[in-house]
Amino acid sequence: MPIALDPGQRAELAEHCLLQPATACDPAWSLPAVDLLDPDSCRALLDRLGPVIGSPNRYITASLLAKRLAFLTTGLALYGMSVLDRGLDLALANWRLDYRHQDGLWRSQMPLLDQRASTPQPGAREAWRASVVQTLFAEGLAPLWQSLHQSARVPLPVLWENTAVRVYSLYEKRLTAERHPARQAQIQADFHWLVAQAPAAVFGASHNPLQRFFRPRQPATARPGTRIRKTCCFYYRATDPETYCGTCPLPHARCKRQTA
């Protein structure tokens, strides 16, 4: 049975994962996440958001929105799971899509309607973990990515790699500085399961997308240890002058051609 977060957990998730009550949303810049499953609502949002973020078309707007939503949803669900042993409900019906953007930066947070959480029973954490992950991906992001794909024609591999890089960053950067050393073994075990063992069904996909994009890091780059993406998110198309993500495959490919 779901239980309430204690004040300390709620504060930690608000600080690190931008959790907020759904009632705190600005109605002018948010909507129920399930609304995006309607093609007309989805296209209307993309058309409104495009000029705000400097995007030239729905395709790029959808990709950049997906990056932000992947950051918010996976950060909250997986931080709660791996650090606090709390399983928050990230199914689409339980959150609002906050899309505030100002002065070139996302200002959106992660508003949940029901902020109660599940907890693992003794000896059953693996089954509980699979359930938390399935709610996040199969019941949350997978249908949302399908809608963005259909409404904006952005390829599903781009949307899933946008998601994967957020998960890698969470576990390889943000959680490596986790201040509870006793949690490190659990954090690493969860990450290994996500990228190497989790079945396709928990992602609502035909394969495990986190495993598909988990490439070795590249030592010979401007930023040694960077994992270069397979796909481009098209962030550079919404910047002036053009600015590339640190993991973008385009400048990396050009550099390889010049040194060949």
UniProtKB/TrEMBL annotation:
Q: Which InterPro entries match?
A: FhuF_C, IucA/IucC-like_C
Q: From what organism does this protein derive?
A: Marinobacter qingdaonensis
Query: Origin, by domain of life?
Result: Bacteria
Q: Which residues form the Aerobactin siderophore biosynthesis IucA/IucC-like C-terminal domain?
A: 64-213
Q: What is this protein called?
A: IucA/IucC family C-terminal-domain containing protein
Q: Report the Pfam families cross-referenced here.
A: FhuF, FhuF_C
- Enumerate the spans annotated as Ferric siderophore reductase C-terminal domain: 229-250
